Amino acid sequence: TARDFGNFVNFAISGRKFNDLNGDGDDEGGADPSQGGVTIYLDLDNSGTLTAGDVSTTSAAVTGAYSFTGLGPRATGYVVREETPASSTQTAPVGGSYTVTATSGTDVTTRDFGNFVNFAISGRKFDDLNGDGDDESGADPGQGGVTIYLDLDNSGTLTWGDVSTTSAAGTGTY
């Protein structure tokens, strides 16, 4: 007696990689475009980076889909991460990864990854000589040394936490 045998039915983990157009961490019901060519991996050593012992795949070009199939039991579960593309900020999932507990025969879906493509804001501070709101195709002189800021708290003034820069001397660019 007490010579029982148990079987585990392998399972799969799958999801979608998407370009989070508004940076809210949601793919808007699938409306945000898919993002192919991104490495998704099972972080088997939970190092936070893709290392030699990890298993990886690449999201599909058109659909952004990825999957890991034939997964067996694992006491610590599976940590799923992405290699965030250059010049992007990961918006989904919250915390940057998924931890999946293996359950016999139960596939785990919708482990989606979102990224917002970073952008730059630039411009020119100038002395509007005729007051028309136009820099006359660059003919109005630039004003250097002026603080330009993103009013992140919408206070109307530069406060702690706002991002700022100073316009360049001579050109007024920032």
Characterization of this structure:
With 174 residues, the protein is an all-beta fold. The protein has strands spanning 11-19, 39-42, 55-58, 65-71, 78-82, 88-92, 98-100, 113-117, 147-150, 163-166. The termini are far apart. The model has no long low-confidence stretch (mean pLDDT 96).
Per DSSP, what share of the residues sits in E-state strands of 2 or more residues? 25-35%
Number of H/I helices: 0
* Derived structural class: mainly beta
- Annotation, overall tally of beta strands: 10
Separation, N- and C-terminal Cα atoms: 79 Å
Order of strands across the main sheet: 4-1-8-6
Q: Spans with pLDDT under 50 lasting ≥5 residues? A: none
Mean pLDDT: 96
| Radius of gyration over all CA atoms, rounded | 25 Å
Summarize the structure.
The chain is mainly beta and 174 residues long.
Task: Name a few traits of the molecule.
four-stranded antiparallel β-sheet, 174 residues, four-stranded mixed β-sheet, mainly beta
Write the layout of secondary structure elements.
Blueprint: E1 11-19, E2 39-42, E3 55-58, E4 65-71, E5 78-82, E6 88-92, E7 98-100, E8 113-117, E9 147-150, E10 163-166
Parallel strand pairs: 1-8
Antiparallel strand pairs: 1-4, 2-3, 2-5, 5-7, 6-8, 9-10
